[in-house]
Every structure is written in C-alpha cells, then in structure tokens.
Amino acid sequence: MNDGIITVFGIGIILIATGITIGYYFSNKNRILRALKKHPFKRIGLIKDNEYVKIKGKAISNDTSLVSPIGKRKCVYYQVEIQEKRSSGKSSHWHTIVKEHKFQDFIIESQTEKAIVITNVPNKNKRIYLNKDVEHSSGTWNDAPEFLENYLRSHGRESTGFLGFNKSIRYKEGAIEVGENITIMGTAKWKESDHNFDQYSSKSLFISGDGENKLIITDDPKAQESKKTSLH
C-alpha cells in the first residue's frame, strides 16, 4: 500500500514538473527569444527590400509619445495587466480583470541609422514581449492610490468590494520607453518618405509584419545577446 502511494506521489511530481517545463519552454517570452536567436543582427543601411531582418537599437517617438498609465513613463508601446485574487471554496486564484495594450508607430535608431517600425498590424501578425518592470498591489491594509483607482474605474472596475473592503489586486505594466534599447524583427520595405533620415536618399526603411513573417518586438536584454551583426 505504501509503495503504491509513493508511486502515485512520484508520478504526480513528475507530471507537475513536466507541466512547468512545457509551460516555460512554450511561454511567449521564450518562443520570441528562440525565434530571434536564429537570425543575425543587420545594419539598417545594408538591408534589402522585402528582407526579414533583425535590428537592435533605441526606440524613438515618431510624434508625441504615449504615457503609460501605471508607471507614468513616456513610451511608444505599453502593456498593462491587472489581476484580482478570488476565492473558491478552500482555494484561491488570480483572475485577470483588465488587460490593455496601446502602441504607436515609432523609430528605431541603430548605429546612427534609423528605420520606422509599423506596429499597427493585426495582433496575429505580431508577437510582443515586454518585461513587466512596474508593479503595484492593493489589499486589506493597502489602499489603491487615486491614480490606480481612476484607471480601474475607466475600465469599469473598483479596488473595493462589499461594504467597502479592499480587494486583493496586483497591477503589472511593461513598456517600451522612449530611448530604451530594444530588439525588433520584421519584413523590410524601402519606401518614399518625408522623414529625411538619409540626405542622399528620399527613401526610408519601414519594418512591419504579416501572417508569414511576424513583427517581433521585445525589450528583454537577452534578445540583444544573439548572433553577430551581419555585414552583407
């Protein structure tokens, strides 16, 4: 009997470990890092039309920058996820109550060269991973500050529940800040433009994505450690 219990327990541990490993391997972050690692970085001036390329550089606002709602950071892309802890019987779990992302087209500057990143493509044509580096929480003895309460209300939510008691809520935000080092990969198109990045050409490089070659954007530092820059 004891041997049977031990065997069942061991199988349970193995299944849990396997589930964790599979979840980690197929996470959005690691799928993006693996995809990026297959390609070398390329200088903007050496990129050919319709080429699927990887670039690293600094994000620059193309116009007026966005301001992230939680970190209040000037940025070109942000993601926010807010979760509420809910109890069900003897167990509890985190339930997502707000999930928002906003973005704008922006410029990436790499070794004094610039390209325009077109982010306004269908979600199925892009893969984004941003480090959630701004976090807040509110709960029993920790009231949500006014700006978070206002943000919740803008999404039809509140930090308090029955009789005004605080809910257990956690707030996470990731953003591509103006001036931040990022990595992108996408399909290149040289087009006539009035940006005048190059005094010798009227064309600028635009990077975007489609169903076959997705636009990939991440601010994870590990993405910058991939293969060396291509010189041709």
Q: What are the main properties of this structure?
A:
five-stranded mixed barrel; 232 residues; alpha+beta
Rg, alpha carbons: 22 Å
Mean pLDDT: 87
Return the structural class: alpha+beta
Number of helices: 3
Q: Which blocks of ≥5 consecutive residues have pLDDT under 50?
A: 14-26
Largest sheet: 5 strands, mixed, barrel
Give the SSE string: HHEEEEEEEEHEEEE
Percent of residues in helices: 10-25%
Give a written overview of the molecule.
By secondary structure, this protein is of the alpha+beta class. The protein has one domain (39-225). Helices cover 19% and strands 39% of the residues. It has 3 helices and 12 strands. The chain has helices spanning 2-25, 28-37, 146-154, and strands at 52-61, 66-67, 74-88, 91-103, 106-110, 113-117, 126-129, 134-138, 169-177, 181-192, 203-208, 215-218. The strands form 2 sheets. Strands 1-5-6-11-10 form a 5-stranded mixed β-barrel. A hairpin with a 6-residue loop joins β2 and β3 (74-88). The longest helix has 24 residues, at 2-25. The N and C termini lie far apart (67 Å). Mean pLDDT is 87; it is low at 14-26.
